[in-house]
Amino acid sequence: MTVPFPKATIEGYPRIGANRELKQALESYWAGRIDAETFRSTTRALRIDTYNHLRDLGLTEDYAIPADVAYYDQVLETGLTVGLIPGGTDLDEEFALARGNDTRVPLEMTKWFDTNYHYLVPEIAEGQDITPAPERVLRLVEEAGEAGHKVRPYLVGPVTLIALSKPAEWSLLPALVEAYAEVFRALKDAGVEWVQVAEPAVVADLSTADAELANYLRQAWSQLLAEEARPQVYLTTPYGAAREALPVLGELAPEALHVDLSPWTLDSDSGYPERVRAQVADSTTLVAGLIDGRNVWAANLRVKAEVLESLGIADDAHVSTSTSLQHVPHSLNAEKNLPVDVANWLSFADEKIGEIQALVAGEAGASDAFARSDRAVRTRAESERTHNADVAAKVDALPTGTVQREPSFSERNAAQREALGLPLLPTTTIGSFPQTQEIRKARADHRDGTLSDDQYTEALREEIKQVIALQEEIGLDVLVHGEPERNDMVQYFAELLDGFVVTENGWVQSYGSRCTRPPIVIGDVSRPAAMTVEWSQYAQSLSEKPVKGMLTGPVTILAWSFKRDDVPLAVSADQIALALADEVRDLEKAGIKVIQIDEPALRELLPLRADERPAYLDWAVRAFRLVSLQAKPETQIHTHLCYSEFGQIIDAVAGLDADVTSIEAARSKMELLEDIDETFHSEIGPGVWDIHSPRVPSTEEMAGLIRAALENVPAERLWVNPDCGLKTRGYAEVDPSLRNMIAARDEVAQGL
Ligand code: GLN
Ligand code: ZN
């Protein structure tokens, strides 16, 4: 007798721990405060606690709990398990891959589908060795078993793993499939009855065309599913709708198949449930990923029940989340300060498990939950927090379609050269300086009232003074104030804008041990007062050199927040842009000559499907342009983007019409500059220092990168800067790295 697939399950659960236990363990281990054994036992305890907690929440069936475990990243974890990434089971080697060390640079990191989670990109090569290390996953099964849990091991699938690697080396697929087969055999031997394998590559347009990907899917999975010795396979397709791959998935007929039926997916593909119903084999258990794994709104259970009807499984439903819950906070229980009405509209990971159970039970079995859901939907739609007539009127008064800053780039560029008088290859940083213990303490003391408003302001001014003095001493050309007042580049603005709420404990993993606390856009957005002017003005008063005003752009504020699901994203983006445009005006009035509008998330909101991208880029570019539309010609507008894969959106980045664009480039060794063409007119600062890694780059290394950049960018347009802000680094690295950066610039500039 085989064990049937559980009725209620989830695709994955936040790994970081309700009190960020994983973060603490990782950082303690890296700092040498705990040894490997303590690290393993601490994280083991966290995993077992999590399984116990999930069982208490109602995931009581065998294999209902996914063991989606990873110390640093799920792609790295699977890569090591199946041997596509060599490194076996050595903890330090694993972290060296993730973070680099004295002798090796880390793997490149990039966003996981259209989320703010970053995965490590496997570097693979034709003919490479693939030796699986199934003991990685067996250990998890065993420790869970000892604690009384039959968990479902999680792997990223072979097709997705290659599709996300660099390069997507498909010649490795047969060998990789053998490796999965070996891992499956080991799991079977260990008595595991269900394994979860995620193939989200089928929902996205990646570098491999959809049709070709569908073929690889057929090739890989017909072989894997034909293996005798394997657990039952739960194949999953989170993050969107499968298109060309759907009939193939139907034919392959794994024992269970997950489809993403989140509001987002259904918005862009309303016929998906019917297609799923038509294609999926009767022998396959269809698992409806109805509960949104990426947003925090309480589900409209009635609407979800209708989707189950259209799938034809209302009477015998298997329900899950659309994606792993790793993208949402643990529990609303940790929020004591949310307005009660707002709290009723929300649902975090733990609450979502309750919604899944309600859908499995149906209205007859869960009438209370359905009544609560009805009430939340109604009160939210009627609330004044949701709708603000003044904001709506302002947005209605905006011109529609594209907007254009006057005069043109070349005229502005001339005016700015005169106003700023910068040297060749000007140097700058991206904005933040190290968030030191003292800053964090001052912020905490201010929050709990130990530090008065005035004392807090004084502490921040003192910090700004030091940051300015350091930059003057090192010899940077365009200075920054260092952003000490910001806990986070989005949250800071969200706290000062109307239409947002922020959480106290809503931490979500961004990469490795890094977490963010995304704010929630709950309604129409507006700016009650200036947000950054006093800090920028103070910093500028301390230096003759230009100090950059520092704003987070509308697309990024939106991307890194939980979004409204009751209006199009474009509407929220325009509202945020209008608020920021007022801030630009106030910064200019305060004498700021250079203003940076960060849009590191521009690519992240890019739809996974190519045919949906133009419409997105139109509204995203428009929102950015609205912010600087009225800026004076001599005000130099910078933008900053945080990734290296640039090709897909190069036209949109050009379309932002910024005066200077800084981008991440160090890890990918300036590769992206090959995409730069004549449509891209702005000055450009490709990062020469990878600030995600704790290394201090040498002068020679950075000089080499500047010279590489000069092969594609003329010297008059090239800036020299790090990849990103310095807030996660310490002064011990920042000080020598910046000095080396200036030395590298001087060395290269001398030779020009
Ligand atoms: N100005 C921000 C900083 O330096 C930009 C950060 C980012 O792009 N993620 O911290
Ligand atoms: Zn950045």
Structure explained in plain terms:
With 752 residues, this protein is of the alpha/beta class. Helices cover 43% and strands 11% of the residues. The chain contains 27 helices and 18 strands. The protein is globular. The protein starts with 20 loop residues before the first helix and ends with a helix. Bound molecules: glutamine and zinc ion. Residues 430-432, 483, 489, 550, 598, 600, 640, 642, 724-725, 727 line the site of glutamine (GLN).
Entry summary:
This protein has 752 residues and is of the alpha/beta class. 43% of the residues lie in helices and 11% in strands. Glutamine (GLN) binds next to loops.
Return residue spans where pLDDT drops below 50 for at least 5 consecutive residues. none
Biggest sheet: strand arrangement: 1-4-5-6-7-8-9
User: Can you tell me the CATH class of the largest domain?
Assistant: Alpha Beta
- Count of alpha and pi helical runs: 27
List the topology elements:
Elements lengths: L20 H10 L5 H21 L9 E2 L6 H9 L8 H9 L9 E3 L6 E3 L14 H12 L5 E5 L1 H6 L9 H17 L4 E5 L11 H17 L5 E6 L7 H8 L3 E5 L2 H6 L3 H8 L5 E7 L9 H11 L6 E4 L18 H6 L3 H17 L1 H16 L6 H8 L12 H12 L16 H11 L5 H22 L16 H6 L1 E4 L6 E4 L2 E3 L3 E7 L6 H9 L6 E5 L1 H6 L9 H21 L4 E5 L14 H16 L7 E6 L8 H6 L4 E4 L19 E4 L12 H12 L20 H20 L2
Parallel strand pairs: 1-4, 4-5, 5-6, 6-7, 7-8, 8-9, 14-15, 15-16, 16-17, 17-18
Antiparallel strand pairs: 2-3, 10-13, 11-12
The protein binds glutamine (GLN) and zinc ion (ZN).
